[in-house]
Specification:
Largest sheet: 9 strands, mixed
Protein name: Basigin
Keywords: Membrane, Transmembrane, Transmembrane helix
Strand content: 25-35%
Radius of gyration: 33 Å
Helix content: 25-40%
Number of helices: 7
Bound molecules: 2-acetamido-2-deoxy-beta-D-glucopyranose
Shape: elongated
Number of strands: 17
CATH topology of the largest domain: Immunoglobulin-like
Number of domains: 2
Structural class: alpha+beta
CATH class of the largest domain: Mainly Beta
CATH architecture of the largest domain: Sandwich
Distance between the termini: 130 Å
């Protein structure tokens, strides 16, 4: 039983959201601890021994045990924790973090004829997530309704529809359900033949327009098929941009950014609405017409009543003449 508990603790690894301790057995002789941020061996934080006067941020290293403090928000210490002795690596452990999307709006409205409109999706986590795009025409509310309470009406794996509720931690059940629904019920973006749309992946940022200089092309790759997406180097795969060089009605619909981290899949969908530029003018034109009608009516009646007064006056004058 005790053995099992130890094993279970080991299997959990170090999740940044929960924190944990590591190094007791693996790093007995270690004299150096580092974290390779997001697994990048040239982006390194060297850990320092705990000192009550100058506490270290996010972790506590005491002897050969590192305690990673739970961090649900900025999760800066995600990556690979490595201990070494005189330059020789002894052991390492991943500090994992689940997929989180950088803010992406739920809907965007553009005008037919707009140029170079972009939307960017970035998934943050460790192991590094990789992205894919899908497309579909079903509205958000339908999916939300199906997945309320984490019900698994459309589950394909990891959950048991007969039990009605996803067999996962409750906080994840709905997200998992929505992700599964979108995966089952959407189309690969490249199979849609959407006009004037470039799908780009980057390790930094892509430029604002469609033209890429040679230098920009090193950091921003345009892909034309799902196979190309799957072959991207991992540091490109977690950040993607859709560039609509010319906005048109046919592009309207729901675009789903699908992030995969080992066997966990999460989705973030947004609606791309395309409006007629004149459509925004119609209510205004309606108002202008209404005002014109009212003004015309007022002028008409003013004129009519002025004429009426004149007639009355002339009648009075004539009457006066007659009585003389
Ligand atoms: C790794 O980190 C270094 C230093 O921060 C950075 O210059 C480099 O681009 C990173 N490499 C990858 C693959 O992200
Ligand atoms: C796709 O969506 C429709 C409409 O909501 C739904 O009836 C159908 O079951 C979905 N298909 C899959 C495979 O989830």
């Amino acid at each position: 039983m005790k053995l099992f508990a130890t094993f279970a603790a080991l299997a959990l690894g170090l999740e940044i959201e929960q924190g944990g301790k590591w190094g007791q057995t693996e790093c007995i002789n270690a004299n150096k601890f580092i974290i390779e941020r997001l697994g990048n061996s040239s982006d390194v934080e060297v850990l320092t021994q705990f000192n009550a006067e100058k506490p270290t941020e996010g972790y506590k290293l005491e002897g050969n045990v590192v305690e990673i403090l739970a961090d649900k928000n900025n999760r800066k210490l995600m990556g690979r924790l490595v201990c070494s002795q005189d330059g020789t690596k002894l052991s390492s452990e991943d500090i994992t973090g689940s997929i989180q999307f950088k803010n992406l709006p739920n809907a965007l409205t553009n005008l037919d004829g707009d140029v170079n409109k972009r939307i960017e999706c970035e998934a943050i986590g460790y192991p590094l997530p990789s992205l894919k795009w899908r497309f579909q025409a079903i509205d958000e509310e339908a999916v939300e309704g199906l997945c309320d309470g984490g019900k698994c009406t459309v589950c394909t794996s990891n959950c048991h529809p007969e039990e009605d509720v996803c067999k996962q931690e409750d906080s994840n059940a709905k997200e998992a359900c929505v992700s599964q629904f979108y995966q089952a019920n959407s189309t690969d973006i490249f199979s849609m033949g959407i006009n004037d749309l470039a799908v780009r992946f980057s390790n930094k940022t892509c430029p604002m327009s469609g033209e890429l200089s040679e230098a920009e092309a090193l950091d921003c790759k345009t892909v034309l098929s799902t196979a190309e997406v799957e072959n991207l180097p991992i540091n490109f795969a977690k950040k993607s941009q859709l560039l609509f060089s010319d906005v048109s009605y046919a592009q309207g619909g729901k675009y789903i950014c699908v992030a995969t981290q080992e066997d966990v899949v999460r989705t973030k969908a947004f609606v791309w609405r395309v409006k007629d530029p004149m459509a925004a003018l119609w209510p205004f034109l309606g108002l202008v017409v209404e005002v014109m009608v009212v003004v015309a009516a007022i002028l008409y009646y003013e004129k009519k009543s002025a004429k009426g007064n004149e007639e009355e006056e002339t009648n009075d004058e004539e009457a006066a003449k007659l009585t003389k």
